Amino acid sequence: MDLSITFTFLVGVLVGWLNEWILDWFYWRNKIPSTSGKEYQKKLDAANQEIAELKKKLSASGGQQ
């Protein structure tokens, strides 16, 4: 196998990967809205509050169905 063919292939793979990385970094990541940790924390707090309310209702009913 000729060394120049292998070298050309490896350079092509590297250039393709670099192009994909640049597109991902500058184009796609700006189109996808990122969710901040604060939004997840709000959802988690709401779920924990709902769990606490359900536990109170369950204990008030005596834990029976």
How would you describe this protein?
With 65 residues, the chain is an all-alpha fold. The chain is built from two helices and no strands. The protein has helices at 3-31, 37-60. The N and C termini lie far apart (76 Å). The relative contact order is 0.06.
Termini separation comes to 76 Å
Secondary-structure content class: mainly alpha
Give helix and strand order, one letter per element, not per position: HH
Count of DSSP-assigned helices? 2
The main β sheet shows up as:
none
List keywords for this structure.
single chain, 65 residues, mainly alpha, 2 helices, 82% helix
Secondary structure: elements and pairs:
Layout: H1 3-31, H2 37-60
Task: Summarize the model shown.
This protein is an all-alpha fold and 65 residues long.
